[in-house]
Design goal:
- The chain has four domains: about 5-75 and about 250-305, 3-Layer(aba) Sandwich (Rossmann fold), CATH 3.40.50.620; about 90-245, Glutamyl-tRNA Synthetase, domain 3 (Alpha-Beta Complex); about 355-405, Orthogonal Bundle (Helicase, Ruva Protein, domain 3); about 410-500, Arc Repressor Mutant, subunit A (Orthogonal Bundle), CATH 1.10.10.350.
- Helix content is about 45%, strand content about 10%.
- By secondary structure, the chain is mostly helical.
- The protein has a three-stranded antiparallel β-sheet. The chain has a two-stranded parallel sheet with strand order 1-2.
- It is elongated, with a radius of gyration of 32 Å.
Length: about 500
């Protein structure tokens, strides 16, 4: 690649960030980093009617949480700003007017009422080759009528004039050669009546101004590709046009259509990266972060939705993804989202992450539930139970007994075989407990005492666990004893004996 790789993620600040959007950002980021290029965040806020307060900062926060912060953005401007389309407004009209002057676009003065009436009369009405000469625009009006309307500041839009009987063909990095028949594409609006560009004009002008080299975007933008390619050509920039890659869709779990927020609501899993509260309605949509996903797992699972490195490897760190990523390995077919698999990724990451990466999140969750441990003890607790946790909130249930003695016991698992000999054994074990021993040494002394009393170690191991934690769960029982300490262990054994004797 001769010139610097510059890619952009260009979301609209209209609400929560869908996991498909994060994957688009991720693939842009990975491609840029693989080729020592730049990853840019450009906020496409030209549609002011859909703008939502706080959405831009939310997008920035999501990318930061994921660990894929941009090299250039509204918050970190570089030499190609501004990075919000609304702040670039003056630059768009000149290009729209240039297109009119060169015959590739035209002024359309049709009022919203006229268009509504036309659509009512023709249900499948498209403003294009077959209908443009019946409408009120600079192709049907005289030059003097057009000049007079413009002088009066009559409301108007500028539309692209799609050519007839042409094939627009381009090479997509994922899909190969793609062709479109221009007869099937309508005359899209390029500049709105308020002077703001539509996506079609703005995206081309901005990609040229920001020297974007490669465009990664969702498959849903494929139908817009012929318009954008023609605009690159009509504006005289055909030789500088970026390479294109249209990413496969993320599909519903059954594979039947694109995954939506509604599907997440219906099936009980998030589709947004982080919690999003709609400022107008106050409705909260849950995100992966707050559900208890680690960003490493979230990024890992997204990368494998539509990409693989050609091997069976599934666990990738961000650094490994940067090194392994290649466009050639992106699938053309849509990828089904599987929430159980997503949880598997999180479980695997929790198991292998160092305690230091988990400590802050776990400590915060424990405090919210009235539990607190010093750093050293917390680190030991996390190390003991992390293999048993799929989502971060699981740490609360898996560690609660370290902070609070159980008030309920699974007595049914013990009482049928409980007897006086066992009660005496536990009293002696508690009285002679040598907490300075290691967990392995404690286990050995426990088993030796059991044999000395004529008991099988297996007969007394389960009652000890239930005395300490309340049920048949938890890590190694003598690891628990070590962390609880001598006094607390003795108290719990005494309480357990009383419970089983009753």
């Amino acid at each position: 690649m001769n010139k610097e790789v510059r890619v952009r993620f260009a979301p609209s600040p209209t609400g929560g960030l869908h996991l498909g959007g994060v994957r688009t950002a991720l693939f842009n980021y990975l491609f840029a980093k693989k080729h020592h290029g730049k990853f840019i965040l450009r906020v496409e806020d030209t549609d002011q009617t859909r703008f939502v307060e706080g959405a831009e900062q939310y997008i920035v926060d999501c990318l930061e949480w994921c660990g894929i912060s941009p090299d250039e953005s509204p918050q970190k401007p570089g030499a190609f700003g501004p990075y919000r389309q609304s702040e670039r407004k003056p630059s768009y009209r000149q290009y729209a007017e240039q297109l009119v002057a060169s015959g590739y676009a035209y002024y359309a003065f049709d009022t919203p009422e006229e268009l509504t009436a036309k659509r009512a009369a023709e249900p499948n009405f498209l403003y294009g080759q077959k209908s443009r000469m019946q409408m009120r625009n600079s192709l049907t009006l005289t030059q003097s009528e057009v000049s007079e309307l413009l002088a009066q500041n009559a409301p108007h839009v500028i539309r692209i004039k799609m050519p007839a009987d042409e094939q627009v063909t381009f090479a997509d990095m994922i899909r190969g050669v793609v062709s479109f028949d221009t007869n099937l594409v309508d005359d899209k609006v390029l500049l709105k009546a308020d002077g703001m560009p539509t996506y079609h004009l703005a995206v081309v002008v901005d990609d040229k101004a920001m020297e974007i080299s490669h465009i990664f975007r969702g498959e849903e933008w494929l139908p817009s590709a012929p318009i954008h390619i023609l605009l690159w050509k009509y504006l005289g920039w055909a030789n500088e046009m970026p390479a294109w890659a249209h990413l496969p869709l993320i599909l519903k779990p059954d594979g039947n259509g694109k995954l939506s927020k509604r599907d997440g609501d219906r099936l009980g899993f998030p589709v947004y990266a982080m919690n999003w509260t709609d400022p107008k309605t106050g409705d909260l949509t849950k995100g992966f972060k707050e559900l208890g996903f680690m960003p490493e797992a979230f990024i890992n699972l997204l990368a494998l939705l539509g990409w693989n490195d050609g091997t069976d490897k599934e666990i990738f760190s961000l650094e490994e993804l940067k090194a392994s990523f290649s466009v050639e390995r992106i699938s053309k077919a849509g990828a089904k989202f599987d929430f159980e698999k997503a949880k598997w990724f999180n479980h695997e990451w929790i198991k292998q992450l160092p305690v230091g990466r988990l400590k802050l999140a776990v400590s915060s969750l424990l405090k919210q539930n009235g539990m607190e441990a010093n750093e050293e003890k917390l680190a030991e607790i996390i190390e003991l139970v992390k293999d048993r946790c799929t989502l971060l909130p699981d740490f609360v249930a898996q560690t609660a007994y370290f902070f609070t003695a159980p008030t309920e016991f699974d007595s049914a698992a013990v009482k049928p075989k409980w007897n006086t000999d066992k009660a005496i054994f536990f009293e002696e074990f508690a009285n002679t407990l040598a907490i300075e021993l290691t967990a392995l040494e404690l286990e050995a002394s426990f088993k030796a005492l059991a044999e000395n009393k004529g008991l099988k170690p297996g007969e007394v191991m389960l009652p000890l666990r239930i005395m300490l934690v309340g049920g048949k769960f938890g890590p190694g029982v003598f690891d628990i004893v070590k962390l609880l300490g001598k006094e607390e262990t003795q108290n719990r054994i005494a309480k357990g004996i009383a419970e089983f004797n009753s």
